[in-house]
Structures are given as C-alpha cells and as structure tokens.
Design brief:
Length: about 80
C-alpha cells in the first residue's frame, strides 16, 4: 500500500517515524524514489516530516498526482 514504508499496519504515523529512522540510519533505506518523498532537496529529515503531513491529510505524495486535492476541488464544484 502507498505510504506503508515499514510494511506494517498500512500507512500510519509509525511510517513517518520509520522514515525518520531511515534518515538517521537506524533502519534500511527504501529504494522508492531514492527516499526523496517530497521531491525537494533529496532525502532529508524534512521527508519524514512530509510523510507525517501526508498522514495528517495536509499534503499528498507527489506521485499520487494530487488525487486527494483534485477530489476536494470536484466536491467544491458540485456544491456550487
Ligand atoms: Ca506502516
Ligand atoms: Ca526531500
């Protein structure tokens, strides 16, 4: 599943923590996109924060094509 970096329990806040551990070198690196999840500055601790934001619904993965945001826009159009 998208965002399930530790291959455990789907996409949870634990995956953001896992990515932070990846950055710290405590766990093996993922091969996914060279771990540059937010598409900025390579792999930094900011990517772990980005994962937490995605989990909280405040951001979307670049490779999801903004699907969540598009759905929100469509909902707005239906209302108006
Ligand atoms: Ca997980
Ligand atoms: Ca990055």
């Amino acid at each position: 599943m998208v965002g399930d970096f530790n291959k455990l329990n789907g996409f949870t806040l634990g995956d953001a923590i896992y990515v932070a551990q990846m950055w710290a070198g405590d766990v093996d690196m993922t091969t996914c996109l060279d771990a540059d999840f937010n598409g900025v500055n390579g792999f930094t601790v900011g990517d772990a924060i980005f994962i937490a934001q995605v989990w909280a619904g405040e951001a979307v993965f670049p490779w999801s094509n903004g699907e969540g945001k598009r759905n929100l826009l469509e909902a707005d159009m239906i209302e108006t």
